[in-house]
Design a protein that fits this description.
This protein is globular. It has two domains: 145 residues, Rossmann fold (3-Layer(aba) Sandwich), CATH 3.40.50.720; 164 residues, no CATH class. The strands form two sheets. A seven-stranded parallel beta sheet has the order 4-3-2-1-5-6-7, with helices on both faces. A four-stranded mixed beta sheet has the order 9-8-10-11, covered by helices on one side. It is 45% helix and 15% strand. Strand 1, helix 1 and strand 2 form a beta-alpha-beta unit. The longest helix is centred in the C-terminal third of the chain and has 17 residues. Helix 14 packs antiparallel against helix 15. The chain is an alpha/beta fold. The chain has 16 helices and eleven strands. It binds NADPH dihydro-nicotinamide-adenine-dinucleotide phosphate and magnesium ion.
Length: 383
């Protein structure tokens, strides 16, 4: 039986690479559902080429255009955020790959997990916002969450066959991004074009900025906490500029396992979709002789304050990571639109963390409200 795949966020960086992986293994996967937010042209092109059963465009103003274009192909077209939730809860697929960026991934992911579906999770913000609820829903419904994020895929792979062994800590590697080694007097003037130039990965705009500010690693610490049921103290970050070791697990005997490879997101995507199988591919192989030195250093959290703020939010718990995430989505958007400077992003996030109401044990509704209120508050801080 082929695995029936749904991709939410199919027009983005992860989404398009997921389509490539599926197209390379037609014997194993069938592409059933695609979704985009507002890029109707890209969605139509994908649908005409790959003929899924269902497409969803969340921007309702684009519905007519998409529906008209796909009528001849007999593809069902839905619109709006509600459709993502309804389709996620439907029986029309086996594995949902969540490649939506940001908070918008939360409710569709929960809907899938409530039905016991396997979720291949790229959308890390979902776990940052409401990791306790998301993992509890998955456990209750016997639903598997398989990470797509390369660091978490690495940890997941290192933990295979180690179910009964005690983990001492996980070590998340960080490339350091395009501004590795830079100081505040430099960062104060950087613009989005430079921040978007990641040395090792080509990614969507939001995660590229998060990587430049090290917020991405902060979000990933929180993501790891929930995915692997870790204590905050068990999560360490080390800067490894070559991005060859994707992350590591240290066990209680002191032994460390790592997962390595060239930086290519298709590998963790393929692993998540085919799990527990590994499938043959022809991706470029790592040649150690081309990497005579793999280096490691501590992260500069004084300069890259977002990482310190994320860690603080993780230790504080409750709705603090949700506040962090909402504020971050607003400031990244403002930075991309040249409304604020690079360092101002941390200032605004910090203000939000101090000013928003703290809720120790939030309900889903509390998270939804925290997200809404923080976005409004953060937007108000941007002139
Ligand atoms: P992109 O910005 O490239 O793509 C985002 C996708 O989500 C697009 O299909 C977009 O549609 C859709 N989308 C955007 N906003 C909404 C919304 N409000 N509602 C529904 N759909 C929406 O992002 P990436 O592919 O880079 O990242 C996706 C997720 O994966 C993020 O959470 C990121 O952190 C994570 N990730 C990404 C990695 C990478 O290498 N890119 C690596 C590890 C994790 P449209 O095209 O119409 O705007
Ligand atoms: Mg990552």
């Amino acid at each position: 039986m082929k695995r029936r795949i749904a991709i939410f966020g199919s027009t983005g960086s992860i989404g398009t690479q997921t389509i490539e992986v599926i197209a390379q293994h037609p014997e194993m996967f069938s592409l059933e559902i695609l979704s985009a937010h507002s890029n109707a042209d890209a969605l139509i092109e994908q649908a005409q080429k790959y003929k899924p059963n269902i497409v969803i465009i969340t921007d309702e103003t684009k519905y007519e255009k998409v529906n008209h274009a796909l009528a001849a192909d007999h593809i069902k077209v839905f619109a709006g955020e509600k459709s993502l939730v309804e389709i996620a809860a439907s029986d029309s697929y086996d594995i949902l790959l969540t490649a939506i960026v940001g908070y918008a991934g939360l409710l569709p992911t929960l809907a899938a997990l409530e039905q016991g579906k396997t979720v291949a999770l790229a959308n890390k913000e979902t776990l940052v916002v409401a990791g306790d609820i998301v993992t509890a829903v998955a456990a209750k419904n016997n639903a598997l969450i398989i990470p797509v994020d390369s660091e978490h895929s690495a940890i997941f792979q290192c933990l295979e066959g180690e179910k009964h062994n005690v983990v001492e800590k996980v070590i998340l590697t960080a490339s350091g991004g395009p501004f590795l080694g830079k100081k505040p007097n430099y960062l104060i003037n950087v613009k989005k074009d430079h921040a978007l130039q990641h040395p090792n990965w080509t990614m969507g705009a939001k995660i590229s900025i998060d990587s430049a500010s090290l917020m991405n690693k902060g979000l990933e610490m929180i993501e790891a906490k929930w995915l692997f049921g870790l204590q905050n103290e068990q999560i360490e970050v080390v800067v490894h500029p070559q991005s060859i070791i994707h992350s590591m697990v240290q066990f209680e005997d002191g032994s460390i396992k790592s997962q390595m490879g060239l930086p290519d997101m298709k590998l963790p995507i393929q692993y998540a979709l085919a799990y527990p199988q590994r499938i043959k591919n022809d991706y470029k192989r790592l040649q150690f002789k081309n990497y005579p030195s793999l280096t490691f250093e501590a992260a500069d959290v004084k300069t890259f304050r977002n990482l310190a703020l994320a860690k603080e939010a993780m230790f504080k718990g409750g709705n603090a990571p949700c506040v962090l995430n909402a504020a971050n989505e607003i400031v990244v958007d403002a930075f991309i639109r040249n409304k604020i400077g690079f360092l101002e992003m941390s200032d605004i996030i910090e203000t939000c963390l101090t000013k928003m109401n703290f809720i120790e044990t939030p309900t889903l509704n509390d998270y939804i409200e925290t997200n809404r209120e923080t976005r409004l508050y953060a937007a108000g801080l941007i002139k």
